[in-house]
Design brief:
heterodimer; A: about 400 residues; D-Maltodextrin-Binding Protein, domain 2; 4-stranded mixed sheet; elongated; B: about 425 residues; alpha/beta; 8-stranded mixed sheet; 19 helices; about 10% strand
Chain lengths: ~400, ~425
């Protein structure tokens, strides 16, 4: 086989790879569906959670209300509906649609007057959805009544109630609405990166292990082409699909942001048009890296099925890693982290999503590192392709 | 939350401290500036209101600018920390010394300067038209801003209204009315009605107050007998102050009834509710503004008419009168208010002992677009209560539209103190 540094056959090769990639309707649909799925889910969940939290009122059944009508009156609030119930078993009442049942014993008022701290029984079903919220609603009202009683009891004894509060803690939240968003939107970069992996998965398996099983890879390698060009063409084709997937996800996310009740969550939607474009661009080197790593892994697997399994693991591993890094609050503010692919992209996306700026120099340096890794992987893949054993593996 | 220092030119103080809670959605709605009371309170002390104003803060930035001589803009405290001296003489002496040290600074402090400074802050922050929330004396500042800078203003929310022409330091009549409102509400309440004529007991207590009784009055913070016997004027002022807050007022009938039995502790506890508050007024600023803009326009006859047949008498006014005698700043009159058409939302408590609803009703005829919310049994400042924050948000969103204020009626007085155990949870039913 004649060895040449660069073959003019690259253009037809690229055309062939792209055609094959984009012709595969199944893979294309999978990429599109997954890309749209998570922004839609995210929007749906935010809307649902906020609606639940702001609009739902808690229904409380009060057993023995006649013992303490003032308690009944004071508990009523904008999100707590109190109904005095003459009788019934707490379990039955919970089944009948009440969120909580509060029971006052018969001698409640007398014991209260005598400072005997009578018990109040709260029945709840912690397996029911919204049980925590319901309890929170009740505690809120009960606490303010309790405070009132304590304050009056202290005053009655000539004690200034502020003796109970030795200092006043005044909290000043220095976050801006957009940096508050960073916390809640922290998962979005990880999901965008996951989209990259998922969208290019099927194609990368097909173009490597698939072609090998169809024996078309052998034919391809017989062409007078340097092996690196074969890998590069496949990488470009696969990356195009992964990149498209992540671009779609970004577009969907930005389009859905206005309908998400972010303001209710105290988050400002601060993503700018420039930010959206930057997000798309900085994912391109990563898309290439993901594609080439997927192709290499698939090539060294023993079969098509094996390749699928390996790549499924590959797509979960880095994303899990990113989420763990985030959850563990590992300090990634050091600039050198921006040279580590995945971590770098995650940090940049996070900043751009909340309208903060990223350093162009570091983005270029990080992207360049990523591209160097792509080049190294292509070179590595080219050498591997020359080993015939690779083709024999079925 | 963001903090700024807005530079000033000359006049000693170099800059103003400004705190901004940015809007969650920068939708371009005009920001809301909070103006504090006193005069002498700092706007930054209003930060706890942000919680109630969360919904407003979603669409609008909320700005708290400490006026000169208050808070972090060079608080002019005159060495009065949280404690006030118990006798007027010591108080006047300390005040006089303070004035002599900073007479020039005292002369510069005025509402006109505050309005000009607010304009400076508005331009510094790059805001177009702004909305104002004023509380208590802050309503006066807001109304003056409307007179002097009408083109910068979109809407006004005034809580506990001190109209420009109203002599708010004549407070004896208003305090008496608030106390009588408390009496009426008490009679309506099964539990409170049992205390019978506690009002007569209060009058008796105040008229017979002497050092012997004062010595029995325990210190609410240490529990020990007071080192300085409580003066009669201070006791009357403590009652007046309790009326500011309906929670404290709800304890008055019981506490006063107990004095009949020689038990002064509950009353001392109520006095303690307001003792040692570190967010107190900057007294230098208080007197600079009050003496120049209020005290000088109040005549002896007016004081006599206001204080006649009231529990407070001149106990409150005397404090300012003796203070202003040693605080000789020039009078700074305002001029008659001119008609204005910005939408205004007025909020009053019908048992407010210093700015009763009648002020907002009678003395703001020059405002063409105003609405008034009156909270039954409400004290001084009602903005954080019940549905009022929601109504303020709605008003700011469409200031021209009349509000559906039916929810204001749901705001009730807190339960009265029934006995040493606190409120009667059984509402006085079964047991007695």
């Amino acid at each position: 086989m004649e060895k040449r540094r660069f073959s003019p056959q690259m253009a037809p090769l690229l055309l062939k790879e792209f055609l094959e990639t984009w012709r595969d309707r199944r893979a294309l649909w999978m990429a599109i569906c997954f890309s749209l799925m998570f922004p839609v889910l995210l929007a749906g969940v935010t809307i649902f959670v906020v609606k639940k939290n702001t609009e739902e009122t808690t229904r409380l059944a009060l057993l023995g209300a006649e013992n303490a009508p003032l308690l009944e009156r004071q508990l009523r609030g904008p999100n707590l509906e109190v109904e005095a119930v003459a009788e019934g078993s707490p379990r039955q009442l919970l089944n009948d649609g009440y969120d909580l049942v509060l029971q006052l014993p018969d001698n409640f008022a007398r014991d209260y007057r005598d400072f005997r701290a009578p018990p109040l029984y709260l029945y709840m079903d912690s397996s029911a959805t919204g049980a925590g919220r319901a309890e929170h609603h009740l505690q809120e009202r009960l606490n303010s009544l309790q405070q009132l009683v304590v304050s009056q009891r202290l005053t009655a004894r000539g004690v200034a109630p502020q003796l109970l509060a030795p200092w006043q803690l005044q909290v000043r939240d220095v976050s801006t609405p957009s940096s508050r968003g960073a916390l809640i939107l922290a998962m979005v970069p990880g999901l965008l990166i996951l989209t990259l992996f998922v969208a290019s998965l099927a194609t990368s398996v097909d173009t490597s292990a698939g072609e090998r099983e169809r024996l078309s890879l052998e034919t391809l390698l017989l062409q007078p082409l340097p092996a690196w060009q074969v890998i590069a063409a496949k990488t470009l084709a696969v990356a195009s699909l992964g990149w498209l997937g992540s671009l779609l996800a970004i577009a969907a996310l930005v389009a859905l942001m206005p309908v998400m009740p972010l303001a209710e969550l105290g988050i400002q939607q601060a993503t700018t048009t420039g930010g959206v474009l930057a997000m798309g661009l900085l994912l391109l080197p990563l898309a290439l890296l993901v594609a080439v790593v997927q192709i290499l892994l698939a090539l060294r697997s023993s079969s098509f099925k094996d390749a699928q399994t390996q790549l499924s693991i590959l797509q979960i591993a880095p994303v899990t890693l990113l989420m763990v890094l985030d959850a563990a609050r590992i300090d990634l503010t050091d600039n050198y982290w921006q040279l580590v692919p995945l971590v770098a992209q995650q940090q940049w996306l996070k900043a751009l999503l909340v309208g903060e700026s990223v350093s162009v120099g570091w983005v270029l340096a990080g992207s360049l590192t990523c591209l160097l890794l792509v080049a190294a992987a292509i070179a590595f893949g080219a050498r591997a392709l020359r080993r015939e054993s690779l083709l024999g593996a079925v | 939350m963001r903090c700024y220092r807005v530079p000033l030119d000359g006049d000693g103080l170099e800059n103003l401290a400004v705190m901004v809670a940015p809007a969650v959605n920068g939708s371009g709605r005009e920001p809301l500036y909070l103006l504090a009371g006193g005069p002498g309170q700092a706007a930054s002390d209003l930060a706890p209101l942000l919680n109630a104003f969360r919904r407003i803060n979603r669409e609008r930035a909320i700005v708290m600018a400490d006026r000169r001589g208050a808070g972090r803009s060079g608080a002019f405290r005159c060495g009065f920390g949280s404690d006030m001296p118990a006798d007027l003489e010591t108080f006047s002496r300390q005040l006089a010394q303070c004035y002599l040290q900073k007479a020039d600074f005292a002369e510069t402090l005025s509402s006109r300067q505050t309005v000009a400074d607010l304009e400076r802050v508005r331009r510094f922050l790059g805001h177009g038209r702004i909305a104002l929330w004023g509380g208590s004396w802050g309503t006066r500042t807001a109304l003056l801003y409307q007179q002097w800078q009408p083109e910068s203003l979109s809407a006004l929310v005034l809580d506990a209204v001190a109209p420009i022409d109203t002599k708010v330091f004549l407070t004896a009549g208003a305090a008496e009315n608030a106390l009588q409102q408390l009496e009426r509400d008490c009679v309506e309440d099964v539990v409170c009605a049992r205390f019978g004529d506690w009002r007569r007991q209060l009058d008796r207590l105040l008229s017979q107050w002497d050092d012997g009784r004062a010595a029995n009055f325990p210190d609410p913070l240490t529990g020990a007998p007071s080192e300085q016997p409580l003066a009669r004027w201070a006791l009357a002022n403590a009652i007046r102050t309790a009326l500011y807050d309906p929670k404290a007022a709800a304890q008055l009938p019981y506490a006063i009834d107990q004095t009949r039995l020689g038990n002064y502790r509950p009353l001392s506890g109520i006095a303690g509710l307001f003792a040692n508050r570190t967010d107190s007024m900057a007294m230098g600023l208080t007197f600079s503004v009050a003496c120049a803009e209020e005290l000088n326009r109040i005549s002896g006859e007016e004081v006599a008419a206001d204080s006649a047949n009231t529990f407070l008498g001149t106990a409150f006014f005397d404090l300012f009168k003796s203070g202003c005698e040693v605080w000789p700043v020039q009078p700074k009159p305002y001029g008659a208010p001119e008609p204005r058409d910005q939408p205004v939302l007025l909020i009053s408590g019908d048992a407010d002992p210093i700015t009763p609803p009648v002020y907002a009703e009678r003395q703001l005829d020059y405002l063409s677009r105003k609405q008034h919310l009156v909270v039954a049994g409400g004290g001084h400042i009602n903005s954080p209560r019940g549905c009022i924050p929601e109504l303020i948000a709605r008003f700011l969103d469409s200031p021209g539209k009349p509000l559906d204020d039916s929810c204001v009626a749901e705001i009730r007085r807190p339960p009265f103190m029934a006995d040493a155990f606190g409120p009667a949870l059984d509402m006085g039913g079964a047991e007695q």
